[in-house]
Amino acid sequence: MEILVKILSGVGVALLFSLAVFIHELGHFLAARWLGLQVDAFSIGFGPAIWKKKIDGCEYKISWIPFGGYVALPQLDPSGMDKVQGSQGDDDKAEDEDHEPELPDVAPWKRIVVSIAGPLGNVVLAVILAAVIALWPGEFMSITSTRVGHVEEECAAYKSGLRAGDKVQSINGTKVSSWYDMLVEFQLSGSSGSADFVVDRNGIIDVMKLAFSTNNVMGMQMLEGVFPDGQSIVGTVMEGSSAEKAGLQPDDVILSMDGTPVLGSSHFAGMVEKKGEKSSILKILRNGEKLEVEVSPKYSEEHERVLVGIVWNQKQLPVKPWMAHKGLYAQLKWDCMSVARVLKGLVAPKTKGERGAIAKNLGGPVMIITMLYDSVRSGFLESIGLLRMLCINLAILNLLPLPVLDGGHVCFAMFEVITRRKPHPKVVATLVNVFAVILIGLMILLVFRDVGRRFKVSRAQEEVAAEEIISK
């Protein structure tokens, strides 16, 4: 059964990725047809064709390598991208050149419209997906606050002054509005290993420098011992436990312990550990009614710590960052700002080493496929949420002024509008091919990096599983 699920999930990944590519190329295709440009080929994927058919002079293809696609527009890109995309073999191309007349020139504004139409297609799809999510019944549980839920007393952040309940306002001068924003700033803080935090503690603003830890498999910078604010929702009450004797039930929300507000499951666990086996009064919310129960934690020899006997409800766990907002505008704004933050760090870094930190944390095709696979297995809504984010990313990145991208074609057309003359075809072809080689090389590098990361994670998971077997 698990094998079938994996196969279906793989098919789902291919469909989602292909949809993002298809809608992008469809935008180019429809604009080109509308403006009267010649379209030689419309391909989903690269490499040898699995299926192809020629209709009205355009060859429609589905190729073996699904991670990409193209529309062959000889009037928009007469030489450069035709070579990179490999829409035809050299013999076929030579034969076409012998038999086909020279194509008429295309006005710069038409080339701009066709170039922009691809990214616009992605934006349209993203808006549709965002609307589906916005109209979907129910709310999403997510950590959108920057309030700290728990700080372990032995960690460096606690010694530097960070406390539970503190609300982080900015990191290294960059405003943060969610826990995910904080995680991003952790990674982009540069090579110093620390960052300046501005926190709000009950209306009092404090500034502190907090050091990061990289003691994890992925080598990511983290605030060790610091956990986000969140609800403490009871999932399962263990048989014979202190929680069962106290009368706790599934879906109870723990509000406070001995009058101290509980800021999340990690915070509650820390409070229990600090309290020891002493009895405490818990204020809980059950079916809209506030109740009080008395609980007496017990020391567990197996876990080597004091426990109440609760397994937390998965509802209290944060959803993926691209599902942190429900409103249509809020979704699209988050997608755009997440890309803008990375581009800003690359072009105009605020701190020393920020550009290098961004380059170090960039993911490639393998990471995207992995994220899609995990999202497909998590459910329909999360899948279309990730697809929405990818579409916005694809639209923005394709509009960058690089010769091999749509933004490059816009720049070439604008050059003609401003100077009243075309850029030299050899210059255009050279720039396109050079940037294509750079882009392909970058993709290969990212693939190797992603594979290395996955190997590290898999190896760590195997080690953890082995330790659990030994402990049993």
Topology of helices and strands:
Blueprint lengths: L1 H33 L6 E15 L2 E15 L7 H6 L4 H10 L8 H28 L12 E4 L4 H4 L7 E5 L2 E2 L3 H9 L6 E8 L2 E8 L14 E3 L5 E4 L4 H5 L6 E5 L2 E2 L3 H11 L4 E7 L2 E7 L2 E3 L4 E3 L2 E3 L15 H20 L6 H8 L3 H14 L1 H19 L7 H14 L5 H47 L1
Antiparallel strand pairs: 1-2, 3-8, 4-5, 4-6, 6-7, 9-16, 10-11, 10-12, 12-13, 14-15
How do the strands of the widest beta sheet line up side by side? 5-4-6-7
Query: Could you tell me how far the N terminus lies from the C terminus, measured between alpha carbons in angstroms?
Result: 27 Å
Rg over alpha carbons: 27 Å
**Number of helical elements:** 14
- Quick one: how many beta strands? 16
Order of helices and strands: HEEHHHEHEEHEEEEHEEHEEEEEHHHHHH
Which bin fits the share of residues in helices?
40-55%
| Percentage beta strand | 15-25%
Low-pLDDT windows of residues: 80-98, 467-472
Q: Which structural class do the helices and strands define?
A: alpha+beta
Q: How many domains make up the coordinates?
A: 3
Average pLDDT = 82
Largest sheet: 4 strands, antiparallel
Shape: elongated
Could you explain how this protein is built, in words?
There is one protein chain. The protein folds into three domains: 2-135 and 385-461, no CATH class; 142-228, Roll (Pdz3 Domain), CATH 2.30.42.10; 234-312, Roll (Pdz3 Domain), CATH 2.30.42. The protein is 48% helix and 20% strand. It has helices at 2-34, 80-85, 90-99, 108-135, 156-159, 179-187, 242-246, 265-275, 328-347, 354-361, 365-378, 380-398, 406-419, 425-471; strands at 41-55, 58-72, 148-151, 167-171, 174-175, 194-201, 204-211, 226-228, 234-237, 253-257, 260-261, 280-286, 289-295, 298-300, 305-307, 310-312. It has a four-stranded antiparallel sheet with strand order 5-4-6-7, covered by helices on one side. The chain has a four-stranded antiparallel sheet with strand order 11-10-12-13. It has a two-stranded antiparallel sheet with strand order 1-2. Helix 1 runs parallel beside helix 12, helix 4 (108-135) packs antiparallel against helix 13 and helix 11 (365-378) runs antiparallel to helix 12 (380-398). The longest helix is centred in the last third of the chain and has 47 residues, at 425-471. Mean pLDDT is 82; it is low at 80-98 and 467-472.
